[in-house]
Design goal:
Elements lengths: L5 E6 L4 E6 L11 E8 L9 H4 L4 H14 L3 E6 L3 H11 L11 E7 L6 H10 L3 E5 L21 E4 L4 H15 L6
Parallel strand pairs: 3-4, 3-5, 5-6, 6-7
Antiparallel strand pairs: 1-2
The structure holds 1,3,4-trihydroxy-5-OXO-cyclohexanecarboxylic acid.
Amino acid sequence: MTTPSQSTVTDKTSNQETLISSNDISANAKTHKLLLINGVNLNLLGKREPEIYGHTTLADIEKKLVARAAKYGIELICIQSNHEGKLVDEIQYYGLLAESAAQVDAIIINPAAFTHTSVAIRDALSATQKPFIEVHLSNVHARESFRQHSYFSDIAVGVICGLGPLGYQIALDYWLTHTYNLKLDS
Ligand code: DQA
């Protein structure tokens, strides 16, 4: 029987149904984790150029997504940094440096300005071999030309831009349905 804090999910790699709860992190148990990464200056959301990035804070976005993931029994880990090397460290930490059962299953990333500059973060994501979705709040294609090149898009599963905070939720829902075979409430 499934309690509210538990969910039944199908692990695509083993095709087995597993009962998980947020407390289920015993040594070899496969945890069900997603990683949300936000890059440089996104800690300023809500204050930073609201006519472009809106009034919603990063804390609000993260809170909503964490709750949505938890509702389906999935842990969403949120990180933000203004430092490229710190983001590389975090991607390694939740990827190859973690035991395989503890690694995140998929990633949502808004690299912010690092989108247009960072071979290092691109390489860190490639090294994890975890699928990722690239998200941008603004429509980068309708802005300055330097924003139209991304070091991430060609290796992303998908790219969402211009939809504001909803873009993150669409990315999360994609992973909930495609990584864990969950049926979401409409
Ligand atoms: C951004 C777009 C980037 O070009 C910019 O540098 C950002 C935010 C977005 O979410 O729209 O900082 O990634």
